[in-house]
């Protein structure tokens, strides 16, 4: 049976589920209406949809749906343990669930939550309960070298589990950098060599880097891509060393999202924005940049995207890839889809709420 | 028994919760615990996991905002009226 494509959006006004039918995209569900949803996705291992909720008043919450978004159930949100401190004198309490990630295929009940103020939470019962990953929280660098970038406190927004080795997980933190565990979370090492933090006295500092999003090539997980605050970086050795692959004169430099081709380790896409000071499109034109040679060169992809009077910004979780298909959503509430690696884009919807996350699924 | 007046917004998450409930408690902290036992999960909507009132939630005892927002030790008498309200925010 041919599976059909589905897009799951986390928006400022709830979760939206759009299904690709023969005559175009159709909204099949709008759940958690009115509630800001920083991130939503479908765990392909068990077809369960997850959404992080950012109630303005009632605190961050977690919800899941086992019927493709028709109904949602609350799942107890993770709790920082009593006595946990962000810094001396400041108790740690959950501020934001920034990312939800499935564990490796060989651990079907494992799930992760990346949160502010900097805690990674792990579940081994399918997400019914979560516990703080203490070894990461207890990193000596956390209280002294991690800090908030755009938010008041550091947050974890990217997580990758190595399909070859379920004990290996990489995460990315704004602002701290990339960390790796090789023993299923018992110990962690920073992996920031080659990154550059222009906002620090020592730009090559191993702690305090600001990855915006990190993604691995599925077929070759030693190849990692990172859209960073200070450029685009790529690693070919599993994050031991990073190389700056930003354009020196062209637009591929600042942005939030990056999408790695699943099979070709030299191909990836970014959606550039104009400098960290301005954070808007470049000259009012919205476009994607693709590299097919590991970042040596970048090509602008504009066909079907607005080239004037567009001021869309694309957040870190709002670009996704499935095979050759790409989709992204913007802070202006526009949603775009490309069936062919970004060569041609179609507008799926305008006038949506601000879009925080876009994730492909199948049904 | 204190009389508790609640914002309607909480009914979305706790459909059984009326706009007015009554409970026996000697402090605001105890009151939240009593309500949480009656409406499981309620407490975590109003206070965080360290016991502090959430930033955009206001609790009043009669017409006074609670003084102890981190420990909720403010005393309650049987004739007190407690208001649990959210501070409104923009679209």
Could you please describe the fold and organization of this structure?
- Chain A is mainly β.
- Chain A is built from three helices and 30 strands.
- In chain A, the strands form eight sheets. A four-stranded antiparallel sheet of chain A has the order 3-2-1-30, with no helix packed on it.
- In chain A, a hairpin with a 7-residue loop joins strand 6 (59-65) and strand 7.
- The longest helix of chain A is centred in the middle third of the chain and has 5 residues, at 141-145.
- The radius of gyration of chain A is 19 Å and the shape is globular.
- The mean pLDDT of chain A is 96.
- Chain B is 18% helix and 24% strand.
- A five-stranded mixed sheet of chain B has the order 2-1-5-3-4, with helices on one face.
- The chains are: A mainly beta (363), B alpha+beta (91).
- Chain A binds chain B through residues 55-59, 74, 76-77, 79-80, 82, 91-94, and chain B through 9-10, 13, 41, 44-46, 48-50, 52, 54, 56-57, 86-87, 89.
């Amino acid at each position: 049976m041919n599976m059909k494509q589905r897009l799951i959006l986390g928006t400022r006004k709830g979760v939206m589920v759009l299904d690709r039918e023969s005559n175009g995209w159709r909204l099949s569900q709008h759940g958690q209406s009115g509630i800001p949803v920083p991130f939503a996705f479908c765990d392909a291992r068990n077809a369960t949809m997850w959404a992080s909720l950012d109630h303005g008043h009632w605190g961050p919450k977690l919800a899941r749906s086992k019927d493709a978004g028709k109904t949602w159930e609350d799942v107890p949100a993770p709790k920082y343990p009593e006595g946990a401190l962000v810094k001396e004198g400041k108790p740690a309490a959950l501020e934001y669930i920034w990312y939800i990630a499935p564990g490796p295929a060989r651990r079907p009940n494992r799930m992760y939550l990346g949160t502010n103020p900097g805690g990674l939470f792990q579940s081994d019962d399918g997400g019914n309960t979560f516990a703080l990953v203490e070894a990461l929280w207890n990193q000596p660098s956390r209280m002294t070298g991690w800090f908030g970038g755009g938010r008041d406190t550091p947050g974890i927004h990217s997580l990758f589990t190595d399909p070859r080795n379920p004990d290996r997980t990489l995460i990315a933190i704004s602002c701290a950098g990339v960390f790796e565990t090789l023993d299923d979370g018992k110990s962690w090492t920073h992996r920031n060599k080659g990154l550059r933090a222009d906002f620090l006295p020592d730009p090559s500092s191993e702690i305090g880097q600001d990855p915006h999003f990190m993604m691995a090539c599925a077929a070759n997980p030693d190849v990692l891509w990172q859209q960073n605050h200070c450029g685009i970086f790529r690693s070919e050795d599993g994050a031991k060393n990073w190389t700056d692959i930003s354009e020196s004169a062209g637009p591929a430099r600042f942005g939030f999202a990056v999408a790695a081709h699943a099979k070709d380790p030299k191909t990836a896409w970014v959606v550039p924005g104009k400098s960290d000071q301005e954070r808007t499109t470049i000259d009012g034109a919205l476009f994607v940049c693709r590299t097919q040679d590991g970042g040596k060169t970048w090509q602008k992809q504009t066909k079907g995207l607005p080239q004037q009077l567009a001021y869309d910004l694309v957040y870190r979780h709002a670009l996704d890839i499935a095979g050759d298909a790409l989709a992204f959503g913007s802070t202006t509430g526009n949603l775009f889809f490309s069936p062919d690696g970004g060569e041609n884009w179609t507008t799926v919807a305008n006038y949506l709420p601000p879009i925080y996350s876009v994730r492909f699924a199948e049904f | 028994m204190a009389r508790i007046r609640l914002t309607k917004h909480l009914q979305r998450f706790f459909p059984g919760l009326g706009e007015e409930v009554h409970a026996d408690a000697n402090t605001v902290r105890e009151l939240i615990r009593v309500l949480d036992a009656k409406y499981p999960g309620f407490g975590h909507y109003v206070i965080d996991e360290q016991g502090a009132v959430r930033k955009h939630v206001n609790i009043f005892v009669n017409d006074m905002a609670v003084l102890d927002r981190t420990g909720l030790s403010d005393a309650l008498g049987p004739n007190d009226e407690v208001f649990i309200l959210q501070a409104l925010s923009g679209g």
